[in-house]
């Protein structure tokens, strides 16, 4: 959903998260400000990362692989382009069960290193984060992941097959993007997404565009 009428401030994101999630809100992660000028397309993805930093000898989590809410506020809209789009990833995966059973089986049954492509980034844990694109939380919520960081597990005997399926997933996702409805965020507008169910992206744009991004976990993510 898109929230309107909020102040164009970082505080508004926090207020919106509290109002949308309510008493189920458990964790908020540091806001990120993203400016692009001009901007290439951002393909469909779900927000997730695994970053833990050491502050004064105490580990602090700055991102979580299972962030189940993402809020994106448009701080500065672009003069041209930059329209957003979103996809119901549950429906996408369910459709694959008949249209592409091989890819569906891969997404639901194959372990990958979710962030292995980004292993050299500081703050990323040295231990690989192993998971599947489609999983369930302890409370039964389905997670459908989409990240450019996924690679085969080190020395996985099926590495070639996994790389092929990762490439096919990317190709399939890119093919569906042009058919999705577009919507535009004006200054101060906040896009709120169920990060377990929805993938989102945006079109290329001219000029400068700035957004604030806040991810969160609720009690439903446990």
Automatic annotation (TrEMBL):
<keyword id="KW-0560">Oxidoreductase</keyword>
<protein>
    <recommendedName>
        <fullName>TauD/TfdA-like domain-containing protein</fullName>
    </recommendedName>
</protein>
<keyword id="KW-0408">Iron</keyword>
<dbReference type="InterPro" id="IPR003819">
    <property type="entry name" value="TauD/TfdA-like"/>
</dbReference>
<dbReference type="InterPro" id="IPR042098">
    <property type="entry name" value="TauD-like_sf"/>
</dbReference>
<feature type="domain" description="TauD/TfdA-like">
    <location>
        <begin position="27"/>
        <end position="211"/>
    </location>
</feature>
<dbReference type="Pfam" id="PF02668">
    <property type="entry name" value="TauD"/>
</dbReference>
């Amino acid at each position: 959903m898109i929230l309107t009428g909020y102040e164009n401030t970082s505080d508004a994101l926090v207020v919106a998260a509290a109002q949308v999630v309510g008493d189920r809100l458990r964790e908020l992660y540091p806001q990120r400000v993203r400016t692009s000028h001009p901007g290439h397309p951002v393909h469909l993805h779900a927000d997730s990362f695994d970053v833990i930093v050491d502050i004064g000898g105490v580990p602090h989590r700055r991102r979580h692989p299972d962030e189940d809410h993402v809020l994106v506020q448009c701080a500065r809209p672009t003069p041209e382009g930059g329209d957003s789009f979103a996809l119901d990833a549950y429906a996408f995966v369910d459709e694959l069960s008949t249209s592409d059973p091989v890819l569906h089986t891969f997404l639901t049954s194959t372990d990958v290193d979710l962030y292995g492509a980004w292993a050299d980034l500081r703050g990323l844990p040295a231990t690989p984060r192993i998971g599947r694109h489609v999983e369930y939380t302890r409370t039964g919520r389905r997670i459908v992941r989409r990240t450019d960081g996924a690679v085969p597990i080190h020395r996985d005997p099926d590495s070639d097959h996994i790389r092929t399926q990762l490439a096919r997933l990317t190709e399939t996702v890119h093919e569906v993007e042009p058919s999705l409805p577009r919507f535009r965020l004006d200054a101060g507008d906040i896009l709120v997404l169920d990060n377990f169910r929805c993938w989102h992206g945006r079109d290329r744009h001219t000029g400068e565009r700035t957004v604030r991004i806040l991810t969160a976990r609720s009690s439903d993510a446990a």
